[in-house]
Design brief:
Number of strands: 2
Mean pLDDT: 86
Distance between the termini: 27 Å
Strand content: under 5%
Number of helices: 7
Bound molecules: fe (ii) ion
Number of domains: 1
Largest sheet: 2 strands, antiparallel
Shape: globular
Oligomer: single chain
Length: 204
C-alpha cells in the first residue's frame, strides 16, 4: 500500500509506520551512504523510477473507466508499490532525488493522458515505459558482481526487472499491433522523457 503524507510526499506503508530515526535504514542492505558514487546514482534513479511507476498507475486509475484497463492498472500498481517499498529500504531519505515532485507530476500525466485517449494508448504507453525500465535495470545488473557485498542488491534488481518485463509483455499483448503516427510519437516522447528523467534524478 502506498500512502500520501501531509507534505505531499509518497511513501510505502512500511516506511510510514517505521521509526523516523531508523526509516530508510534496514538490516540486510548495505549502507547507502557508503556505496560507490555510481551505484548511489543508479539506485537514486531506481527509487525515482518506482515512485514514477506508482504515479503512472494512479494517473490511469484517476481517468480511465475501462474495466480491463482498471484491472490491469490495479494489479500493476500493487507490484509497483512493492518495488517502491524495496527502494525506500535501500535508498536512505538523504540519498533520494530532490526532483520527486516533478516525477510525481510527470508520472501521473504519463498515465492520465493516454487513459483519456483509450485502452490501447495506455497499453502502448506501458510497453514503452517498461521497455526502457528493462534496459535501465539490465545495465545496472551487468555492473554488479553476483557474489559479495552487492549480491542482495543485484538479486533485488533482477526481481524488479523480471516484474517489469512481464508488465511489458502483458501490455504488448494487449496493445494493438498497428499504431497511428500520434501514438508512435507519444511512445517515443515517453521513452526519451524516461531517459532524461533518469539522467536528472542521478544528478539532483
Ligand atoms: Fe517497478
Ligand atoms: Fe512495472
Amino acid at each position: 500500500m502506498v500512502l500520501d503524507k501531509s507534505d505531499g510526499t509518497l511513501v510505502s506503508e512500511t516506511e510510514s509506520t517505521a521509526n523516523p530515526a531508523t526509516a530508510g535504514v534496514t538490516a540486510g542492505w548495505p549502507d547507502f551512504g557508503a556505496l560507490p558514487g555510481w551505484l548511489q546514482q543508479e539506485l537514486r534513479s531506481d527509487h525515482a523510477g518506482e515512485y514514477g511507476a506508482v504515479m503512472i498507475y494512479r494517473g490511469v486509475l484517476a481517468v480511465s473507466k475501462d474495466t480491463s484497463v482498471r484491472q490491469f492498472a490495479e494489479r500493476h500498481l500493487l507490484t509497483e508499490g512493492q518495488h517502491l517499498a524495496l527502494m525506500e529500504e535501500i535508498v536512505s531519505r538523504r540519498g533520494r532525488t530532490k526532483l520527486l515532485p516533478l516525477w510525481r507530476l510527470m508520472g501521473w500525466l504519463t498515465g492520465a493522458l493516454p487513459a483519456l485517449v483509450g485502452r490501447h494508448a495506455v497499453f502502448a504507453t506501458i510497453e514503452a515505459v517498461e521497455t526502457f525500465v528493462d534496459h535501465h535495470y539490465e545495465q545496472q545488473i551487468q555492473r554488479l558482481p553476483a557474489q559479495g557485498t552487492y549480491a542482495s542488491l543485484r538479486e533485488t534488481l533482477l526481481k524488479c526487472q523480471a516484474d517489469e518485463v512481464s508488465h511489458r509483455d502483458e501490455a504488448a499483448r494487449l496493445a494493438l499491433p498497428r499504431r497511428g503516427i500520434l501514438l508512435r510519437a507519444w511512445c517515443a516522447v515517453v521513452g526519451t522523457g524516461s531517459m532524461l528523467a533518469v539522467i536528472a534524478a542521478k544528478r539532483v
